Amino acid sequence: MSKGLLIVVSGPSGTGKGTVCAELLSKTPQLAYSISATTRQPRDGEMDGKNYYFLSKEEFERKIGEGDFLEYAEVYGNYYGTPLGKIEERRAAGQDILLEIDTQGALNVMKRCPDGLFIFLLPPSLPELERRIRGRGSETEESLKRRLGSAREEIEIGRQYTFVVINDTVQRAVERIKSIMTAEHCRRDKEDMINEVLEK
Asked: Which end of the chain is more exposed for a tag (fewer CB within 10 A), N or C?
């Protein structure tokens, strides 16, 4: 059995990563979402092992020291990280894993898992991205300018990804990612497929 794919999806805020990833998961039964670990307290309704792995700060720092995270970051006093063991376990069993993380985290994953499939999600244009962020109604003019400035920087980092997918519509973006996954499976499984045919 061939190893499962590690699919890493990033993109600027407002690109629709969460929506695209949720739709991709619902349309792809063999794909599993990577559950992150965190030191923050569970919110109402959140369950350990379903929404996050909730760890103490000491436990998280011990795991950092043992190299147990694919990537991690400290955000507003809490740690967030991607447990490496769980991903490797599931990939070894042939399962594809989806990881939705920011560009900083993705660059770290590129070093640890160079066989990952790195997909950068783009908006159709910067004016469209601005329209989407404004549509949320949660940004001041100052924070909007900051987000758009960050988006330009992140889009430049997107050049380092394996693939770029434009999210013009969620459906089309999902179909493009599914096509990339199919092509990657065909590429990685070619030796097994050829041997299987030759042995028949």
From this structure: C
